[in-house]
Design goal:
- The chain is of the alpha/beta class.
- The protein has two domains: about 35 residues; about 240 residues, Metallo-beta-lactamase, Chain A.
- It is about 35% helix and about 25% strand.
- It has twelve helices and 15 strands.
- The strands form two sheets. It has an eight-stranded mixed β-sheet.
- Helix 3 packs parallel to helix 4 and helix 8 packs antiparallel against helix 9.
- The radius of gyration is 24 Å and the shape is globular.
- It starts with a helix and ends with a strand.
- Bound molecules: zinc ion (2 copies).
Length: about 350
């Protein structure tokens, strides 16, 4: 054997021995990795990483009622001046918001755009994470259109046994009885929050037969974000979004839902085909959303509540057409995304789940 051959052979032997040792100690190594991951997750301080002068828009649910492995249903959270405002909390969004590391103890309120179930089914898990995770002493405050009181009353009833079990188990200091559940305030279009320089304005949009359905605009220190809610073309939205830094717009691509309807036809599913053909009427196409962004003078257009919520490479197809109607920056949002509006230039982007 050559000298080189002997070196290779002994190096291979060493590698095999090291691999054997790692294999024998695999449980110890896995435990160390677990300890490090837990320490990092529990010690994570997302707020410390946020510019306190910026307006932060967090995408805690970018999906719709159509089931998706990647997208929770409707949820957008805005962090301004140390306070957190949640707009809608669809299924899965409580979990997503918690995983993003945003401070649930700073929630001032949850503002519902309308009472379609994909906008409130995440409220139970969100309330639990806030209550138990931050030892909240007041119920989660809901604001929304007529009927919000029914949602609060129903959830309070449904979660009552769970709350009793948790108080009995962890004690009232950790889960204060006063912090369990929900309160409801019914709101009308107009200013619905005005405190410490933060102003939230509700406006009625077009989502018939769902009435009323609201969009919201939040203003703080000369920066603003406007949320369309679920809506077809709406002049009220264009008016409310005048000059906004960021227009977060719902979107349904009718060409793609028609392909879904045709597939349902072919496979003998007429009821699903009808639903796929009903829904474009009360949502906005990419072109309509683009027009709203242009007409309002919005500085950026972000799509959320995306139908269909196709995986990344297909998203080009889903938002196609918006860029012919709006010349500014356009982004199709993903769960976990954060846009930070600093007041100059395009909002800064990062994802808190990647
Ligand atoms: Zn809706
Ligand atoms: Zn919806």
């Amino acid at each position: 054997m050559t000298k080189r051959g002997r070196i290779i052979l002994s190096l291979s032997g060493l590698l095999i021995a090291a691999a054997g040792l790692a294999y024998a100690k695999r449980d110890v190594l896995l435990m160390r990795a677990y300890e490090r991951a837990v320490d990092k997750a529990i010690g994570r301080d997302v707020v410390a990483s946020l510019d306190p002068k910026a307006l932060h828009v967090a995408f805690c649910g970018t999906g719709s009622p159509l089931p998706s492995r990647d997208r929770a249903a409707a949820c957008t959270a805005i962090f301004a001046g140390g306070k957190l405002f949640v707009f809608d909390a669809g299924e899965g969004s409580g979990k997503t918001l918690s995983l993003m590391g945003l401070p649930l103890g700073k929630i001032e309120g949850v503002y519902l755009t309308h009472l379609h179930s994909d906008h409130f089914e995440g409220l139970g898990p969100l309330a639990l994470q806030r209550w138990a995770g931050t030892s909240a002493t007041t119920p989660l405050a809901l604001f929304g259109p007529a009927g919000t009181d029914k949602i609060a009353a129903g959830l309070n009833l449904a979660y009552q046994p769970d709350s009793q079990f948790r108080i009995a188990h962890h004690g009232p200091k950790v889960v204060p009885p006063s912090g369990y559940g929900f309160t409801a305030t019914m709101i009308q279009p107009g200013v619905v929050y005005d405190k410490d320089g933060i102003r939230i304005t509700a406006f009625a949009v077009h989502h018939d037969p769902v009435t009323p359905a609201y969009g919201y605009r939040l203003d703080w220190q000369g920066k603003s974000v406007t949320l369309s809610g679920d809506t077809a073309q709406s002049d009220a939205l264009v008016k409310a979004a005048k000059g906004t830094d960021l227009l977060v717009h719902e979107m349904l691509n009718p060409k793609l839902t028609e392909i879904m309807a045709q597939a349902a036809d072919r496979h003998g599913q007429p009821n699903r085909a009808k639903i796929f053909r009903d829904i474009p009427g009360y949502h906005s196409s990419p072109e309509v959303a683009g027009d709203a962004a242009t007409a309002s003078g919005a500085k950026m257009l972000a799509f959320s509540h995306i139908v269909p919520g196709a995986p990344g490479p297909l998203m080009r197809l889903v938002i196609a057409g918006a860029d012919k109607h709006y010349a500014g920056p356009i982004r199709a949002m993903r769960d976990g995304d954060l846009l930070s509006i600093t007041g100059t230039g395009t909002p800064q982007y990062r994802n808190l789940l990647d």
